[in-house]
Amino acid sequence: MQIFSSLAVILALGQFTFGAMIVLDCTNFPESCNNDCYGIYGPPRLPSSLTWDPPSSSVERNRRRGSGCTMSNGLSACNANSGVSPYNNDGPTCDEYPYASTSQGGMAGATLRCMSRSDNSAEGGYLRGNLYRKPIANGGCGNVAPCSFTVAVDMNTIGNSPLCSGANSGTSPLNDGHEFKKLSGGGYAAAKRELSDKDIYAPFPDGNGTFPMHLRREFLMNDGTRIMLLTTDLDMVIPSGLMVATSGDAKVVIRELLGQEKSPALRPLVAASFVA
Length: 276
Hints:
The chain has five helices and eleven strands. It has one domain. Strands 1, 2, 5, 8, 9, 10 and 11 form a seven-stranded mixed sheet that branches. Strands 3-4 form a two-stranded antiparallel ribbon. It has a two-stranded antiparallel ribbon with strand order 6-7. A hairpin with a 5-residue loop joins strand 6 and strand 7 (188-190). The chain has 276 residues and is α+β, with helices and mostly antiparallel strands. It has helices spanning 2-18, 30-41, 57-67, 117-132, 162-165, and strands spanning 20-24, 49-52, 93-97, 111-115, 147-154, 180-182, 188-190, 217-221, 226-229, 243-244, 251-257. Helices cover 22% and strands 18% of the residues. Residues 1-19 form the signal peptide. InterPro entries: DNase_NucA_NucB (IPR029476).
């Protein structure tokens, strides 16, 4: 145990330089995970590195207005009676990415998704309990701000999040009809690529502006589980031995998986061989 404790201290110190990482268990908030994956991998190509401030209640409210989750009249964009149609039919609460709890929250072009209260609140509670308030020695922020972090998803928990898993037509994340955004003029529209945004889709976007499945980065953890790092940055260095925060005990990154050793949905296509 002394060896493990010493290792934990070393990893925690190393993590201070790198920033924290949270692994989402999407089981209880599949729609929130859908929104995260669309925001990062889809045409919006929103930031994947976030910073928890934490914000005051008033700052967080202003961020929700900025993102569009709260309309100019003070009501939720997902309000059943006067919210944004047809998206308000999906549920009474509005989820936004980037999170309102981070300094990136409230930015123009944030992805919005209406969903159940339980789904929306579950992800918020997960972040608070398993990242923001979790001790640094266990991979969290230790309730010390500002705290920079990246987000990953447990590959075993994204079966109900097709915008993460690629289950929608084999290409993830196409807008499934439930992702929308606030326009600069104040209205709302389906979240999609804008003509003026063509310079932010590198590297190697699919023809529809999404980030290709085979370029998604997957890592093997010390307990044998696999995580997908939600980023389009192919150069981000994820050190072996990095301690990451989870809903249980902290896990440690063993190595990045490449090529055909990745999970089937993330493997590169291999051209068939033909004999003349």
